[in-house]
Amino acid sequence: MTVAAPLAPDPLAKPLGGIDVSDPAIYQQDTWQPLFARLRREAPVHYCAESRYGPYWSVTRYNDIMTVELDHATYSSEIGGIQVEDQPADMKRGSFIRMDPPRHAAQRRTVAPVAAPVNLASYETTIRQRTRAVLDALPRNEIFDWVDKVSIELTTMMLATLFDFPWEERRKLTYWSDVAICNVNAPDAPVRSEEERFAELLRMADFFKALWRERAAAPPRLDLISMMAHGDGTCDMPEPEFVGNLALLVVGGNDTTRNSMSGGLLALWQNPKELAKLKANPGLVPSLVAETIRYQTPVIHMRRTATRDAELAGRRIRRGDKVVMWYVSGNRDESVIDDPDAFIVDRAKPRQHLSYGAGIHRCVGDRLADLQLRILWEEILGRGLDIAVMGPPRRLYSNFIRGIRELPVRINAG
Ligand code: HEM
């Protein structure tokens, strides 16, 4: 006779008002889907009166998220920042993702060229060479961690190339990115308090300042730091802004792309028919990349703060309220995306997703991320690598980055 295990509490049995999707545990356990499905159905703009981050609104449908994204006069990134969790007032980090116009536009203009098509073309050869070297060096017929050996390695190499960062020290970039985004209460967090986080980020700032001074004193080169140190619009940017913006690139370009590399492999493993389609038609790679970015949704949410009273999907938002756009939910909105919980590599409109945001803050690195992922999959398919996932992923405890910390795999070779 088998004895039934005690049932876990059913999150859907809660009254609507008690649903708190800011709980990082639901992303670590990957149990967020039914909660958001219920909110989209029953309370698409939902008020959570009590959470560890205070009261907040959840915007869960695709089109309502778009409304908030496009109305930056009503929904500010500057007043309260971009995460449901407020940053301590004395430890604010300045960068243009946390700014409203006009300051936002001026700073974005200085950084955006790094991922402009003309520069991307020059990175393609380097990215491809490095991707090949990483894949060729992977162990065969033994279990290893895909996150560490591939996803982290490739994204960190890319950032080190952009900055012309000292090569041997490039894992510092990975560490700083982890420090910047971690939930300090997570058991595996690299720092344990906001004070510790701030101290580490000041160390990062010192490192970048030294590089900046070195590049400013040397003839112009093609790396981002040199370009900014010599550029007309940027050479006299105050140091804190310069450092803040570099930090934004470190974080923006690191965890997000890394988790798309891990999430894509996992999704293909879980959907062997999709993998077969891809092997039969490698021309689907760009579509696979877009679908991976939708399905993984590496940035779980962005937060805004209402600058005035407003109405959203019939709900009254008050000036000063926290308004959270849950991209994970908008990307699974069945009223906009067909069969949204399925991973499908040949969708009719694969680019229809919210993972890169929209409006004035839309990701500046989107094409760079697409390029890195496209090259990775072209090279994997070109080599005919038979990669098996050997165990469940270990997921990040965070309500901001949908991260995979560890993914055991094995490359089967004859
Ligand atoms: C799959 C990879 C990536 C994802 C999913 C992603 C996602 C996002 C999201 C959701 C935003 C905010 C959009 C909004 O508020 O509307 C953003 C902004 C930004 N991202 Fe990315 N990102 C990725 C890769 C990158 C890369 C590779 C870089 C740079 C090298 C980068 C740099 C930035 C910057 C600088 C911003 C701020 C833009 C602004 O405020 O105007 N991102 N990204």
How do the strands and helices of this protein lay out in sequence?
Layout: H1 25-28, H2 33-42, E1 45-48, E2 56-59, H3 62-70, E3 75-76, H4 103-111, H5 117-136, E4 143-145, H6 146-163, H7 171-181, H8 194-217, H9 224-230, H10 239-270, H11 272-280, H12 285-296, E5 301-306, E6 310-312, E7 315-317, E8 322-326, H13 327-330, H14 366-383, E9 386-389, E10 394-395, E11 404-406, E12 408-412
Parallel strand pairs: 2-8
Antiparallel strand pairs: 1-2, 3-5, 4-12, 5-8, 6-7, 9-12, 10-11
Helix pairs in contact: 5-6, 5-14, 6-10, 7-10, 8-9, 8-10, 10-12, 10-14, 12-14
Indicate the structural class.
alpha+beta
How many strands, what sense, and barrel or not for the largest sheet? 5 strands, mixed
Q: What is the CA-CA span between the terminal residues?
A: 44 Å
Secondary-structure element order, N to C: HHEEHEHHEHHHHHHHEEEEHHEEEE
Q: Any idea what the shape is?
A: globular
Mean pLDDT: 90
Given as residue ranges, the uncertain stretches (5+ residues, pLDDT < 50) are 1-8
Q: Radius of gyration over alpha carbons?
A: 21 Å
User: How many strands appear in the DSSP assignment?
Assistant: 12
Helix segment tally: 14
**Bound ligands:** protoporphyrin IX containing FE
Q: What share of the residues does DSSP label as strand, in percent?
A: 5-15%
Q: Residue share in helices? A: 40-55%
